[in-house]
Amino acid sequence: MTITQNVDITIAEVIRKNADNPGLGEKDDFFDSGISSLTVVNMQMEIENILNKKVETKELMKNPSIDGWVSVYSSAL
Amino acid sequence: MNYDTVHEQFKAVVRAYADRTAISDKGRSLSYAELDELAERAAGALASAGVVRGSPVILAMARSIDFVVAVLAVIRLGGVYVPAGSRSNADALRDLAARTRSAHVVVDAAGELGFETAATLVFKSLLEGAPRHPLPAIERHRDDCLYIMFTSGSTGAPKGVMIPDRGVLRLVRGTNYTQITPTDTIFLTADPAFDASTFEIWGALLNGARIFVASADFDPNALADGIERHAVTIIWLTAGLFHAIGANRPEMFRPLRQLLVGGDVLNGGIVRAVLDACPGLEIVNGYGPTENTTFTCCHRMTGRNPPADNVPIGLPVTGTTVHLLDDHGQRVPVGTNGTLHVGGDGVALGYLGRPDDPAFVRVPSVGDELLYNTGDLAVLRDGIYYFLGRSDSLVKIRGYRVSTHYVREQLYRLGYVQEAVIRVDTDPRMGKRLTAHLRLDDGARGVADVRRDCLSLMPSYMVPEIIRIVDQIALTKNGKVQTQQSVELL
Q1: Residues 228 to 257 of B: which have CB under 8 A from any A CB?
Q2: B:441-470 residues touching chain A, CB 8 A cutoff
Q3: Residue B430 to residues B401, B434, B481: CA-CA distances in angstroms?
Q4: What pLDDT score was predicted for residue B131?
Q5: Predicted-complex ipTM score
Q6: Distance from CA of B145 to the nearest CA of A (A)
Q7: What is the 3-state secondary structure (H, E, C) of chain A?
Q8: In chain A, what residues touch B215 (CB-CB under 8 Å)?
């Protein structure tokens, strides 16, 4: 995977894998699937290692869904 | 020179390093002289509000420069600071005020917490209205209570741990696990109500070093930014956060001189990975209950001295005595498991309002000193201590006595288990059963393979009935592994 990796696909893959829920919808709150604050940090680092983009963890905490993260990372420089 | 009280030691540092930076965040910086002046002004206002020697003062403030000023102001008057933590709410503060019989609560902003009393003081107004005339000197002793920190303990009921000046001085002055100098910068990342903040704040301020205040919780990028751009040299992290970062971005710690980790059992594999990625870094496994002032034993590790999979807790911190005792209060032979009792200057004055709590004991076979019974099992091997788990870790599974710690040790022996948490759940039909949450090496086996491998190491009744392979193990707000009351944390 490289910096050109599709943001939507990467985020969906990482979140669904960490939630252990392949059917997790784009708008579903992943905290309802048992995701913890530490898992958020782990998913963040996993995604950022792939996308080479960095965001604040608190923004991710405030937007706990695939769509929410896509929006946060798409807005990042 | 060493002084008997935290206040005297801080004043000596102010005299020696007046112009050096004492504390900073992303937008603000104070020298030791400026910090001291603000603390004196805030102390003047607190004195006007009725704070005197021995007064408990609740600090319902976020981790910040202001919080540190407030701490210094309280101890300037001989008061006792009670950090409420950044997530305080009105109910929690009412409970805290009742438990500590505190008449004074300092908050960051008016109305913010929905907790208002006649004695609620807004921090900013302390500085605005403070008299500028010098305060009289106070009489303070090394055994005076410096702060009260609440811990849930093993029963879940909050207990206020009363820590004296001597405990803090023993933690950060002339000790054997770290040498903090005025050229160091310590990252303040812990919540104020968590005792790691004791090390971070006083480790810096009593040695002339600088505090850099973290702007965010659990944010690896903020940590990386502080380490790279703000010249942080020493940091403390919970084991959970260290494992998460170490597994994904081990090189992040490269600029540090020393990384202290605590709160849970350390994973030797991740420690080695971080040491490999960060030549020159020293990692310290810091073990200890709040009741013995943050750290009791520490184990120092470098690239030349990497740990095995089972990371020891090391040697007692200077000024600490450690005793491994059996159920009859007798010392156990070297190499034999015992319950870890600790003594020395770090031992708390006791629990607030619980003068006869049995956790604080005098054991005739050891001598007359007051000991704290940690309830943790440990063993001394080759001159260093190893944590084995809680002494109450034995459970009965279908009639068999099972040590959850032993089960966990066996799981680590499989070689591909990165992290393991064993829970004891009660099924209404089946009774107690073990559930293992495991984080495995990449590409490692499935549940059936793990179960088969377990049977080669332990009897079938010890193999957890439910094995869950997970990517991460949950953390509480303080960064410890999340458990329920019925859970055995390993």
Answers
A1: 240-241, 244-245, 247-249
A2: 470
A3: 16, 11, 26
A4: 62
A5: 0.89
A6: 34
A7: CCCCCCHHHHHHHHHHHHHCCCCCCCCCCHHHHCCCHHHHHHHHHHHHHHHCCCCCHHHHHHCCCHHHHHHHHHHCC
A8: none
